[in-house]
Amino acid sequence: VSPPVILKLSVHDATPDGPNVVDVVGRVAIKYRTGDNITGLAVHPQTGQLLVLHSTGSVRHIDQLVVVSPTNASIIAKPRKIQSTPLGLRCDQCEDLNFDSSGRLFVTDDYDDDLYEIDPATGEILAVIDGDESGGLHGSSSPKIEALAWSDRLEHFVAFDDNSNQFLALTPGPGNNATLGRIAGLTDVEGLDFLASRLTSVAAMLER
Fold this sequence. Notes:
single chain, mainly beta, four-stranded antiparallel β-sheet
């Protein structure tokens, strides 16, 4: 299986109709099985360290946290399994990850509908931050979170639910979430981030 490619693009150069200019950063060269993918990436707000989420897409294998170079995507540190033996938790089908402004790292797990805080250095699950992602939502009884972004101004996550094609507000706590609504024609959003107080959706961060 060919490793996925990380691309770099500038939203300032983007046009509504394309084509848009992207630069190839490099391939994340770790061992992949059929069905594996890089489903998320996040930059540490203080150090600039780039982390990627290696998802196996299967409950038989544990997802991994990988530190890579932002200049060529080479692996900087050994991939770490996202799990906690003391808590009896593991990431089986994680979809995205993101830092808050203080440098805490969070990951959303589709299999359990949970939001975890994880240690960015080891991949260990530190706590279940939200064990009820559907709590407070309307029209999203079983959310499949595929994109996650932290808002400093709102002090909560904005996420995209692939099952209902809705944007959600996810608070760093149990079940106190809200449905934000849809954008007509926008489906299958794979990545989100904030730029100078504007929410920017990025649907093509990675490719095979």
